[in-house]
Design goal:
24% of the residues lie in helices and 32% in strands. It has 377 residues and is an alpha+beta fold. The protein has 2 domains: 237 residues, P-loop containing nucleotide triphosphate hydrolases (Rossmann fold); 118 residues, OB fold (Dihydrolipoamide Acetyltransferase, E2P) (Beta Barrel), CATH 2.40.50.100. The strands form 4 sheets. The chain has a 6-stranded mixed β-sheet, with helices on both faces. Helix 3 crosses helix 4, helix 3 packs parallel to helix 5 and helix 4 crosses helix 5. Bound molecules: adenosine-5'-triphosphate (ATP). It comes from Tranquillimonas rosea.
Length: 377
């Protein structure tokens, strides 16, 4: 029986909950809490990403879960057991950080074997285990290479095999892909997903890359200023952001500031159709958010189909992104508010040039109206 199975059997009542974080604060004595009142649970076998800007408390929360630090308040349990109650060498947690900390003088296979040696696994089974995990990360045949003889992506794979070879209950990833170039990063994101699905190991990943969070995760937690802003599945998070911060952090979103008039968003006397998603009193300051793929664009004077609000605009900029164009359109009636609009026909590049008059519009469902709090980043 593996350690993981043993722990799960011991704590049958919490068998499906791998990690529970309950009312956790972390105070470093700096005047603001690095983590404030964090609570969530993660089921066994799920892949969670903690997403947020720099300084939002992601790494602190991960380090608390790893047991490197003790929360000022609250409790963290892994398979029902308090993490602080277990000495570090008894914790069944694999980790991969941005700095991989591989041993340069050892071969790839020796690096992968290291945690087994430290945990006093049966030496007779070690070579087979090391081979199996090198195969899992698609490094079969490269076990004899020293670390400096491997590419950045291959070194990453060694680090993943080393974190997983002792079959931990939990895998923690702290921005392991941040230093890689974009193409390799995207390839490794898919690899993390494949390996995690293949092994079914409960995983918590920290990143500030929204695309990575959407691609690899079963669940996402968005943090800002030490607080969890929203916890949801990726598609739910994208479609129904809980507040303007989340709407801004995930996806390309334009904002309109005004007042809630009881039904729509009033921007300087112009009524903008939208759907309130926060509890709003009529007359209160409000912020409308609309995704770049939800704003419709047409020639001046045309009627845009199904749009509840239609206004004249002027193209300020056209950005070519390969598979799509991004139009930046200013709307004089809305105090020159700028809307970013996706257009998925790069062949139509010269459809509207900078300075062209256009018509923009949206449906009531597409403009989400939030309570106005702080400024979007
Ligand atoms: N050991 C420490 N002592 C004092 N303050 C700390 C300590 N560790 C973190 N902090 C502070 O806590 C806050 C959260 O930091 P944390 O590293 O968790 O953020 P993060 O979201 O992981 O940021 P990044 O993406 O830049 O790594 C920051 O304001 C940071 O300065």
């Amino acid at each position: 029986m593996s350690t993981a199975e043993a722990v799960r059997t011991d704590t049958a009542s919490t068998a499906t909950t791998a990690v529970s974080v309950d009312g956790v604060d972390m105070d470093f004595g700096t005047g603001t809490l690095a983590v404030r009142d964090a609570s969530f649970t993660l089921e066994t076998g799920r892949f969670l990403t903690i997403l947020g800007p720099s300084g939002s408390g992601k790494t602190t929360l991960l380090r608390l879960i790893a047991g490197f630090q003790t929360p000022t308040r609250g409790e963290i349990r892994i398979h029902g057991q308090r993490i602080s109650a277990k000495p570090p060498h008894k914790r069944s947690i694999g980790m991969v950080f941005q700095r991989l900390a591989l041993f340069p003088h050892m071969t790839a296979a020796e690096n992968v074997a290291f945690p087994l040696k430290m945990r006093r696994h049966d030496p007779a089974t070690t070579p087979d285990k090391v081979d199996a995990y090198l195969r899992l990360v698609r490094l079969d045949g490269l076990g004899d290479r020293r670390i400096h003889e491997l590419s950045g992506g291959q070194q990453q794979r060694v680090a993943i095999a080393r974190a997983l070879v002792f079959e931990p209950d939990l895998l923690l990833l702290d921005e392991p892909l941040a230093a890689l170039d974009r193409k390799l990063r995207e390839e490794m994101q898919l690899e993390f997903r494949r390996i995690q699905k293949e092994l079914g190991v409960t995983t918590i990943n920290v990143t500030h890359d929204q695309r990575e969070a959407l691609v690899v995760s079963d669940e996402i937690i968005v943090m800002d200023h030490g607080e969890i802003q929203q916890a949801a599945r990726p598609s739910e998070m994208y479609r129904n952001p809980a507040n303007a911060f989340v709407a801004n952090f995930i996806g390309v979103t334009s904002f309109l500031d005004g007042r809630f008039d009881g039904g729509a968003l009033d921007v300087g006397g112009v009524s903008c159709a939208g759907t309130p998603v926060s509890k709003l009193d009529p007359g209160s300051p409000a912020r409308g958010a609309i995704r770049a793929e939800q704003v419709r664009l047409g020639a001046p004077g045309t009627t845009l189909e199904a749009c509840d609000t239609q206004l004249d605009g002027v193209v300020d900029d056209v950005i070519f992104e390969g598979e799509r164009l991004v139009y930046v359109v200013t709307v004089p009636a809305l105090g020159d508010a700028a809307l970013r609009i996706y257009h998925h026909d790069p062949a139509a590049q010269d459809l509207y040039g900078a300075g062209a008059a256009v018509r923009v519009g949206w449906t009531e469902a597409d403009l989400r109206i939030f309570k106005k709090t702080g400024e979007p980043a």
